[in-house]
Design a protein that fits this description.
- There is one protein chain.
- It is globular, with a radius of gyration of 24 Å.
- By secondary structure, it is an alpha/beta fold.
- Strands 9-10-8-7-11-12-13 form a 7-stranded parallel sheet, with helices on both faces. Strands 3-2-1-4-5-6 form a 6-stranded parallel sheet.
- Strand 9, helix 13 and strand 10 form a beta-alpha-beta unit.
- The longest helix has 22 residues.
- 42% of the residues lie in helices and 15% in strands.
């Protein structure tokens, strides 16, 4: 097996480098490649300096691709940094660049970051030369050969939030090969854990680190909810029975089809309170939602990012919601508050299930809301985790106009099970940190 693993890297790494050279000449003419190259060229920033250039070694190394993966591993990274330990992080997607640079501002002496060089790779910025730690963590997938090469230099090579969801592997399946490089694998769900045990992978107890991260945000929710409290919007929402409050998380235009005649009448009669939190919060996206609501005969009021510090505008939005004769749909286009905003509602519809895949269902579940989502759950281990923990707390459906009927007829669920999940995840997280 060791020979096969070495041979695989010996073939794939030169192939990837050759591929980068071949696409080089067309880079100026391809928008994606051009933007990627500019992104990678920013690796000359001070925060990208390897600890080795200072004669230092990191205590932990991490690779993430997306924002969701960063959220998963952030509790570990913060625990290390808060303990004055050094962390180096490699990331693939520009979507996480802002958060990572903000982390560097807080911990400039103990945190380093590197954009994964896929097109432009100066020798001193190649991962296996840049990384100094003996313990490296990868999150979920994106098994780039140069990252797997780190397993040859790190005695501890860990994979977290791992899943085999939607995949059927035998012990000798080629798709399982990258998993063989890891010395420890921490699966996302118990279902994944059982599959990995059957495949003889070096698996540990299942844990979704997002539970820890989301719980931390909810414990500190007052700061993020302040704008709703100060404007009186939160007071208005709370004036409705919790079961009569529905929020659309990461809403897309297609979701407006869920506004049935019965639901529209209840909104107009102020029997229920409905809020939309758009996935895209630019003016064009918000205006599109407003127009679609208008076609349904519904008025809407929106709170934008620019309104946060405008007390007069906040009062105006609040008064429009309260004083109009007919009920009005509230659109919240404020960034970075959805997780906390969920806590004001008894029901949450999580979007994406009638598109590519559902967005986060853990956030509304841990915030105490009953969760509804579309049928595209095939990529979501969060959906599996909620189902495993409490099958009565989430509902996947395939007919958008039936949403309000489902809300009215939903079963009650045991919020105590949510707390059990938080306690179990916190315990496993603390145990895992001790072993890292």
């Amino acid at each position: 097996m060791e020979f096969l693993k070495f041979t695989y890297l010996l073939i794939t790494i030169p192939f990837m480098r050759m591929l980068a050279l071949l696409v080089g000449p067309i880079t100026p003419f391809n928008r994606f490649l051009k933007e990627r190259l500019l992104f990678e060229k920013r690796n000359n920033e001070p925060g990208c300096q390897s600890f080795s250039e200072q004669g230092l070694e990191a205590d932990l190394g991490v690779h993430v691709s997306s924002e969701g993966e960063l959220e998963q591993v952030l509790p570990i990274v913060r625990r290390y940094l808060e303990s004055a330990k050094k962390v180096e992080l490699i990331f693939t997607s520009p979507s996480v660049e802002k958060k990572i640079k903000e982390l560097y501002k807080v911990y400039p002496n103990s945190f380093r970051y590197l954009r994964l060089p896929l097109l432009k790779a100066p020798r001193f910025r190649r991962p296996f030369l840049w990384v100094t730690t003996d313990h490296f963590i990868m999150v979920r997938y994106d098994f780039f050969p140069e990252l797997l090469l780190l397993s040859r230099f790190c005695s501890r090579f860990t994979l977290v939030w791992a899943t085999l969801k939607g995949k059927e592997y035998s012990p000798f399946s080629p798709g399982l090969f990258p998993y063989r490089y890891f010395t420890k694998i921490i699966p996302a769900t118990e279902s994944d854990q059982n599959k990995m045990i059957d495949l003889s992978l070096p698996v540990d107890d299942a844990i979704d680190f997002r539970v820890v991260q989301i719980n931390k945000r909810l414990q500190e929710k007052e700061k993020k909810l302040a704008v709703y409290e100060q404007s009186g919007i939160a007071e208005l929402i709370k004036s409705y029975p919790r079961s009569k409050r529905l929020v659309y998380g990461s809403c897309w235009p297609v979701d407006i089809e869920s506004f049935s005649k019965v639901m529209i009448e209840k909104i107009k009669n102020k029997e229920i309170f409905v809020a939309l939190c758009p996935h895209k919060i630019n003016d064009e996206s918000v205006d599109q939602l407003k127009e679609l609501l208008k076609l349904k005969g519904l008025e809407s009021v929106c709170l934008y990012r620019k309104d946060e510090s405008d007390s007069e505008k906040l009062k105006k939005v609040s008064s429009e919601l309260k004083e109009q004769e007919q009920g009005t749909v509230f659109i919240s286009a404020l960034p970075g508050r959805l997780c906390e905003f969920y806590s004001l509602f008894g029901n949450a519809y999580v979007s994406g299930g009638f598109g590519r895949s559902i967005h986060s269902v853990l956030e509304p579940y841990l915030a105490g809301a009953f969760v509804f989502c579309g049928p595209k759950t095939h990529r979501s281990t969060e959906f599996d985790l909620v189902k495993e923990n409490d099958d009565q707390a989430i509902c996947s459906f395939s007919d958008l106009p039936s949403l309000w009927t489902l809300v009215e007829n939903r079963d009650s669920f045991n919020e105590g099970k949510c707390n059990e999940l938080i306690d179990l995840s916190s315990m496993r997280f603390n145990e895992m940190i001790k072993k890292l």
